[in-house]
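Troubleshooting log. The previous structure file for this entry was overwritten by mistake, so regenerating from the original sequence record. Sequence copied from the archived sheet and checked twice against the printout by T.R.
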Amino acid sequence: MAEGLRQPGTSGFSLVELLVALVFTMVLMAGMANVYKASLSAFYTSGESISSTRRNRMSVDLLVEDLNQAGMFLTDLASAPPVTEAMPVFLILPNMPVTGHGDNDPLATDELYFYQDQPLPFEGTLASGGTQLSAIELVARGTAVATADTSYTLDCGSAAYASQVAIGQVLVFKDAWQALTITSATPSGSSVTVGTLPTATSADLAGITGGGAAAPASQVRHLAGSRVLIIQPAQMVRYRIQMLQLDPGSATGIPCLVRDQGDYNPSAFTATQPQQIIAENVAGFAAYLSTNGGTTWAGWNATDRTKAIYSDYGAGWDTGIRTELDTQLLTSGRPGAATTRIGPAWFRTIPVLVRVDVTTRTATRRSEYAAAPDAVAHRLQTQSLVLVPRHSGLALN
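Regenerated output below.
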């Protein structure tokens, strides 16, 4: 049978040509898909790594500021702080269990505690002065202490600042460096009127003249316009990892490095201030001490480069880290300071090098981070902080 003739002016691809073209197109698209996947993976992993590094850096920066206030005493430099052996000025509880952790969360963490007198982030200006009688004038006149003699009006600069002044804080007048405890605080706009008289009983009011217990009258008259430092005294700070429910998709929560603060308790730590989240997705927090310039670290096994396994106060701090520090002091350290067992304020007498390791992890587990095939894991990053806190080794007198 005669083959049909192709009509003039028409053209096209045969089926074989179309199949060959389709094969080449699929190969090209597969190659482009791999390139796109690799680029997308690099974008996600680099972003997560940068985020993890940023969290590490922020944690370390905040720790530097806080550790430099450890052992800072502002209210009475003439005597030792009111601390006990159970809650000394500086304390590490190693390898404490993390409550509520999941399979991929940290199982244990170090808990870092330290004492400080914390100044508020602003100063007050004495709006009135010269009207109160000084303690010497009250004695000379035989006059009982009146409320006007123990009341001061401070300009704090803003209403938000004025509202932070509270009972129990300490006023330090910079014109005479004298400290008085606040027993009443009444804010009004950007100013606050504070009192330092504990009660209004006649015995207390007459105390300065010898008719009763000593009353908190100022030793001198303070000048109007002088600056006043406001201190939250006897504070205890704690750093540790805690599981927090910040992600609705996670049943166990996210491991976070948190900062807790509370009024000093001689027997146990109790947080009284709002908790601060320092960083999320923190896989490790470890603290070590050294009194020999970092040659050895208490809490770290240099032989096999692993963390010591002891835990809690007795085995972890008292007979663990503290005993290692005493061993270091036998061959190094400040002359005359051969042991940390010289009282709960030992941190102020002996210079101590502090090392803190913060390990953050990526928010997502990916196959790119896993060592084994067909597995997923977090990428971990550790940043270390090493410093001698500003008040370590600074004797009280």
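The first strand starts at residue 90 and ends at 97. Archived copy saved in two places this time.
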